[in-house]
Amino acid sequence: MPTPLKILVPVKRVIDYAVKPRVNKARTAVETSGVKHSMNPFDELSIEAAVRMRESKNPPVDDILALSAGPAKCVDVLRTAMAMGADRSIHVEIPDAGQGQAELEPLGVAKLLAKVVADEGRNLVILGKQSIDDDSSQTGQMLAGLLGWGQATQASKIEIDDSDRVTVTREVDGGVETVRFPLPGIITTDLRLNEPRYASLPNIMKAKKKKLEKKSLSDYGVDERRRLKTVKVEEPPPRKGGGKVEDVDGLIAKLKELGAI
Amino acid sequence: MATTCLKNVLFNRRLTASSIKSSRPSYLLRPCPAAQTRWSSATTEPRQPDADGGTKGGPSTQRYIKYTSESYPGIKRDNKFGKLSKAHVKFFKDLLGAQSAVIDGVSQDATDDLEPFNSDWMRKYKGHTKLVVKPGSTDEVSKVLKYCNNNMLAVVPQGGNSGLVGGSVPVYDEIVINMSRMNSIRGFDEVSGTLVVDAGCILEIVDHFLAERNHIFPLDLGAKGSCHIGGNVATNAGGLRLLRYGSLHGNVLGIEAVLPDGTVMDDLSKLRKNNTGYDIKQLFIGGEGTIGIITGVSILCPQRSKAANVAFFGLESFDKVQEAFRAAKSQLSEILSAFELMDGQSQDLVHAVTAKKRPLEGQYPFYCLIETSGSNPDHDSEKLEKFLEHVMGEEIVSDGVLAQDETQIQSLWSWREGIPECLGHWGGVYKYDLSIPLPELYKLVEDTRERLTSVGLIGDDEKHPVVGVVGYGHMGDSNLHLNVATRRFDTEVEKKLEPFVYEWIAKRNGSISAEHGLGLAKKAFVGYSRSETMIRLMKQIKDLYDPVSRITPLLDCLMTNYTAERYHEPI
């Protein structure tokens, strides 16, 4: 008999994928105030993966728990996660000290998640392979290390058989790699895994009634001290604009001038 | 050689792609949503048949574009207009200098280069022009028109050539005056929001420029990647934001135009209030270039909203759609920025062409897209949530989704904005753009569908010319787009549609052209929407500003094909 899954899906609230990020005036971080935020796109894939596991009913899924750590607004992405199909969620509130100073580092997040896994009796954690704001791509791996669990990163396909073995296909340079680990374990998701669903209105309404627990870092006894200091943040140098030529003769003259012909 | 018109399209596509890529690393360019953005569908819309070879739209039976003069033998060339000679061409070449400013088909064979300027993107109209001139300044436009006026040469002004009524392409050998080289942004005042641009500026480029300054162009439409501001104004384009920001008649503050005799009318006012006599510039807005070519526009641009939300609904009947519209107006009021209607069949056809995953699980006879935009995200969300609870609770809408991020917003919009392009997939599309009193808005689609079905013209195979009859449009403006997607343009279909549609509209005091203009397609039918007195007054204005091309009795209708600025805009 397969073990019923108790899934944890951490979700991060980040600057919307379609918004062009700008560096703040003090050049210490990316400007976040007054900018549209959404769920990290990779975390959407993780939620979708978890919900599809439940829909397939094999193995049975007991519970999908979404978790977000960050300022008060993170509740929005948790509501979205629950509207997509997560059963309940935990918001670990970290007061916004402004300009990203309060943000946890991957190791801090991994330690927090390790505690949550223990407290909530999880046997599968599905994470986005990275968040699109800091692009660290470390949390899943660190969590696997802290828990001593197997991990499969950048999943493009997930299968779980009756003897609790998880088979994951991952896209690597030049092809695909297939890996397998026994539960419990960690999966990080990649773009081709699935196409996340829209949050439907009935489910948005239902999500409002789902349980959302407020916690703080001290509840989990996690040391949130940063080990890295951001020295400076700069925009990439602007691309030099191309010139326009009037006609074909102008183009030929320009190419000759540049030694291209 | 790529023509300028195509260059614009290509340039835009590149610009769009790079602006997406530069903001985010490439791993985020998802295979699906990245191809579903509002922009990509918009920029490919007015493609020319020889540009992409129709690859984007898939197989198409309408390869060959019939000359307008063959399709409509009733239209006669007025022989008081002169024939082009090499001497004429030399004048234009000397005047405009640059080689790229004149495409000369008189002294050499330039059929391929002239093709994109001769035909429209719907592949319905095609002219015989031998000469395209691209003036680079108001002064050059003035000299070109003066010369044409003195030498009795017919012209057709052309913007982005994204029109739907055949207004921007020649019928015979009119000289095409293409405005694409007049494309600089002259100035923008961030305090008042007043923008001054050349007529040949592309809408999307101007809107990007404004976005960087937290402002928005008060007009948005599917062809924004190609259409010119001058053409938008000349045709009084309506589009997606009219519900919120109003018509160009209110937003345009000033116009610089060149009259047919070369006179420059400099009324480029930046004033919101100016009650000193007749407001002549209003005649140029929606005048389709019949009394002059617009060369510059000053326009009032509102502040760009910080927060935008999009919801997509499925509804069981048109009555429910009306209820939803009333609820949206009363509960969302000032933040409501779009209320778009799409019928089930239009969405089926989009699905058939794009094979994208539908936003809703079930299928419904009607769909609506609602957009809100405002300055305070929390305020908007609260209002929207109440509204959504209301329409779901009262069972006004059967199902719906709410976009959770920008990518989903664009993806939902593509189901509305992608319709015109997808309908052209099988061949030709008969397009009607109509103002109809709201309660009867959709009845026309049902009546038309029934009419074509009863005579056996609609079917799934090649034997039937019609693929389907669909309705969609700007519900908020009582503006319906009735589209008949066909496998080929067929006179039998046309006979069943016209004047049936126009008579139907006239009976209900609607308009036969809500936002597309008259152009060539609708000009013969203007009597269905305007009284004899109104048409007489319009003719008087035309004669006053353009005495040279006084309408001949042969063309017993409002617009001549000559000395007429006729660019147009789809959506």
From TrEMBL, chain A:
Residues 27-224 form the Electron transfer flavoprotein alpha/beta-subunit N-terminal domain. The keyword Electron transport applies. Binds 1 AMP per subunit. Binds 1 FAD per dimer. CDD domains: ETF_beta. The keyword Mitochondrion applies. Transmembrane segments: none annotated. Its cofactor is AMP; FAD. Coiled coil: none annotated. It is found in: Mitochondrion matrix. One of its GO terms (cellular component) is mitochondrial matrix. GO terms for biological process: amino acid catabolic process; fatty acid beta-oxidation using acyl-CoA dehydrogenase. GO terms for molecular function: electron transfer activity. InterPro entries: ET-Flavoprotein_bsu_CS (IPR000049), ETF_a/b_N (IPR014730), ETF_b (IPR012255), ETF_beta_N (IPR033948), Rossmann-like_a/b/a_fold (IPR014729). Keywords: Electron transport, Mitochondrion, Transport. Its main location: mitochondrion. PANTHER family: ELECTRON TRANSFER FLAVOPROTEIN BETA-SUBUNIT, ELECTRON TRANSFER FLAVOPROTEIN SUBUNIT BETA. Heterodimer of an alpha and a beta subunit. This is Probable electron transfer flavoprotein subunit beta.
From TrEMBL, chain B:
One of its GO terms (molecular function) is FAD binding. One of its GO terms (biological process) is malate metabolic process. It catalyses: (R)-lactate + 2 Fe(III)-[cytochrome c] = 2 Fe(II)-[cytochrome c] + pyruvate + 2 H(+); (R)-malate + A = oxaloacetate + AH2. This is D-2-hydroxyglutarate dehydrogenase, mitochondrial. GO terms for cellular component: mitochondrion. The keyword rRNA-binding does not apply. Catalyzes the oxidation of D-2-hydroxyglutarate (D-2-HG) to alpha-ketoglutarate. Also catalyzes the oxidation of other D-2-hydroxyacids, such as D-malate (D-MAL) and D-lactate (D-LAC). Exhibits high activities towards D-2-HG and D-MAL but a very weak activity towards D-LAC.
